[in-house]
Amino acid sequence: MSKFDSKTELARVPHEPGVYRYFDEKDEVIYVGKAKDLRNRVGSYFAKTNQHDRKTKRLVSQIRRLEFTIVPTEWDALLLENQLIKRFQPKYNILLRDDKTYPFICITHEPFPRVITVRRVDRRLGTYFGPFANSRAMYALLDMFKELYTIRSCHLNLTPENIEAGKFKVCLEFHLGNCKGPCEGRQPMADYDAEIDQINHILKGNLAVPQQYFKDQMLEAAEKMAFEQAHEWKTKIQLLDNFQSKATVVNPRVGDVDVLTVISDEEAAYLNYMKVKNGYVVATQTFDIKKQLEEKDEEILALIILEMHEKYGSDAKELISNVTPDLDMKINIVVPQIGDKKKLLDMSMKNVMFFRREKAERRAVEASAATSKKDRVLIKLKADLQLKSLPRHIECFDNSNIQGTNPVAAMVCFKDAKPSKKDYRHYTIKTVTGANDFASMKEVVGRRYARLLNEESPLPDLIVVDGGKGQLSAAVDALKELGIYGKVPIIGIAKRLEEIYFPGDSLPLYIDKKSESLKLIQQARDEAHRFAISYHRDKRSRGSLVSELENVEGIGKKTASVLLKHFRGIKAIRESTPEQLAEVVGPDKAKKVKAYFEKMLVE
Question: Which SMART domains does the UniProt record give (predicted)?
């Protein structure tokens, strides 16, 4: 896809409200935005780009195509933006977390409806209330419903036809008094639906309807001298009053309102939402959203208003907030200064500020724990070895040879107490003949740090040599020849008793076997040994293959190595055609190699 021509594209964008979409080179939507004036908003991305933050610059650099949709009003732009963000989930937009794991209370659409809890919303199945960010509050409601009403808990299909046909029998819940037996026709549907209607009112925050119903029933029972029934209704009134007293209450004159407050820092926005019905806070949720492009609080608020209205089924026409979006919205947004609405705002702000502080403290504790665990080992190692600085960069050397064949060495690197495998190095011994561990150690240590000095790369904070005084002395000699002895601490670790040797000191240091610092040195030593052994095995394997090819008349070590390098193994060489071999070593040698392997097959 060709590079984005901002001037040409901008010329076709109108001065109208709408929604714009940016596409990348894969023609995927990477950002969706709304605007009161499309041309002004889109143009702002390509003017004074040096003033943009790092993420916005990255977004602009990836734009390859622009699409826009004109809409009648800013409110329509907000609605369309919300739908497109959910549909495309662009990587540079704020993506709201999926809260489907929060539970809902559902009143089912069926004869004799059930009151159940669900986590997946399917509006065809029933009427949903929630989500409940605090599940404890939800279960407290359900417990109250069980005490106030006799709602069935079974899954039977209680159609009038099934009940009339006598398909069902009452269960234990009927005998315990928790159900009136609608399955056998013992409770009229109208009576049952009246109870469901009251549960609906309670879940909507309207307690006046069930309270009045209970009072009417109590007075009616009292007039009939049915005092036990009257007492039962009175108990239900008290239960409802008790629930009401525990609920968060504001002045009923406030009416139905939503409260949404937002505060933010560079990384995230923190929000608190409260749904108020008839003077009660019937739902509340506090959450955070990771920022993408340094979005302003007003932009975030506009997006979240729609999300909260949809999620909590709010029909409030007024929103109390601490910020006002520069947007023509169909919801009346107020920032109260006094009165009951100001108390609601203060309560929401208190919640969101507490949540932000709690999040910051938790992150600080987690970061501190991660840092302290890493540094604790290094601090202990620094103290045990009496180093001048923390050994954040450690390099460890080991030699490997078996009966003097294929001598090799390895260096492993640990940074911040963890292996840094990209810095590992293998060495083939070049200047030493036979099994001379001391001379081999001197060679590889010298080669390693001569190269670092030549490249002007930083030296390690600690050098560890696998071996006792002999290997350590050889490594020290290499450092002295390079003029860096004394600039880098160096130690040797002897395997048998895990003794730590220092240059010029005949007495070893014994670190506590359970010490984390000794375990780190041992880990580096073992890793160097493993790395050296694996390289040595590979060298021996290749050496034996070369030796086998040298059995071919007219094929020397050099030609054998060329063949192995090209074909990667004896099997591939054996199965190759003369033409394929000739491309690598010429026709004459190819015939000899092919003849050799054919003869072996015959034998």
Answer: GIYc, HhH1
Q: What is the largest CA-CA distance in the chain?
A: 123
- Beta-carbon contacts of 424 under 8 Å, excluding residues fewer than 6 positions away, are 410, 411, 412, 413, 531
User: For residue range 520-562, what is the model confidence (pLDDT) as tens digits?
Assistant: 999 998 888 888 887 656 555 444 444 456 566 667 667 777 7
CA distance 213 to 198: 9
524 and 555 assigned to the same domain:
no
Domain around 280: 252-358
- Asked if residue 416 is part of any domain, the answer here is yes
Which residues have CB under 8 Å from 126's CB, separation 6+?
A: 106, 107, 108, 109, 110, 113
Give a yes or no: residue 409 inside a domain.
yes
Tell me the whole-structure pTM to 2 decimals: 0.48
pLDDT digits (tens, 9 = 90+) for 329-360: 778 888 988 888 888 888 888 888 888 888 88
Q: Is the dihedral of CA 165, 168, 169, 175 positive or negative?
A: negative
Of 228, 246, 264, the one marking the end of a domain is 246
Q: What is the DSSP letter of 50?
A: G
CA atoms of 339 and 33, how far apart (whole Å):
36
Q: What sign for the dihedral angle of Cα 414, 420, 421, 427? A: negative
In the sheet that 18-23 helps form, which strands lie side by side, from edge to edge? 29-35, 18-23, 65-70
Residue 242, class by beta-carbon neighbours within 10 Å (0-12 exposed, 13-18 middle, 19+ buried)? exposed
What are the backbone angles phi and psi of residue 576, rounded to the nearest 5°?
A: -75, 155
Closest-CA residue to 313 (of 138, 133, 132, 128): 128
